[in-house]
Amino acid sequence: MTALxxxxxxxxxxxxxxxxxxxxxxxxxxxxxxxVIAAIGVNPNKKVMFSTEQRLDFLRTSLADFPNVTCDTxxxxxxxxxxxxxxxxxxxxxxxxxxxxxxxxxALANRDLAPEIETIFLIAATDKLFLSSSVVKEIAAYGRDVxxxxxxxxxxxxxxxxxxx
Length: 165
Prior knowledge:
Helix content is 39%, strand content 22%. The protein is built from six helices and five strands, in the order βαβαβαβαβαα. The chain has a five-stranded parallel beta sheet with strand order 3-2-1-4-5, with helices on both faces. Strand 2 (35-41), helix 2 and strand 3 form a beta-alpha-beta unit.
């Protein structure tokens, strides 16, 4: 087996939709890694607001100024995807203690499945601690402006999805 590249990290998620918190973590990961892959996990059993193609487009548009970021999709186990793209590191974001328990369990499972792949946690920026895709969708569903929380392309798509009366 070829050694994985320690300069490559994968930041995976559903990104439904991508938030400014997601974008912030990707930009901050670039301070430690030469290349970051923003990978949308595709799970046909998960109910999502935006199609995989839309979410991929949102990420590509939002990260277009960062040539060392690749946006991609994967299905199956994240560690298998990391091996496929030669990434040695998984980046995960933590907002609160509630995130930690789930993320810790996933990191341990990933370590068991692929001990050569390390998980690194980044703490959310303080102004984005409350921010999640679920919160953004709920705000939008009540007709409120989500532009302070998401990239402009996402805010526009959400305005179209939840038009004001």
